[in-house]
Amino acid sequence: MLMNYIMGKISKGVECSLDSCSNSAIRSISSKNVDSNEFSISSDSNKVYFCNEHYKSWKKSTKELRKSERARY
Ligand SMILES: [Zn+2]
Questions:
Q1: So what's the pLDDT on residue 53?
Q2: Cα–Cα distance for residue pair 3/15, rounded to 1 Å
Q3: CA 71 to centroid of ligand 1, rounded, Å
Q4: Which has the closest alpha carbon to 2: 31, 39, 26, 33?
Q5: What is the 15 CA–ligand 1 centroid distance (Å)?
Q6: C-alpha R_g of the chain
Q7: What pLDDT sits at residue 8?
Q8: Which of 19, 20, 25, 67 would be a feasible disulfide site paired with 40, CB 3.0-4.6 Å?
Q9: pLDDT, tens only, 13-50
Q10: 59 φ/ψ angles, rounded to the nearest 5 degrees
Q11: Are strands 25-30 and 7-9 parallel, antiparallel or unpaired?
């Protein structure tokens, strides 16, 4: 899949990096792929951890950005 190279599975017990969220994270994403205007991240590291809920909304926002790219196919 196209997105696999920027995402990795993470170990259990890691919390979502969003300020307002303390759910268990299911995915780690390179922070350069996360729009900090849209997601308030509490982590300073170059990895961002998302719970299921916020991973979905991140994926949605990424899809919006990629619409123009996709139109070529
Ligand atoms: Zn979350």
A1: 95
A2: 22
A3: 30
A4: 33
A5: 8
A6: 12
A7: 60
A8: 19
A9: 788 999 889 999 999 999 989 988 888 886 667 889 99
A10: -60, -40
A11: antiparallel
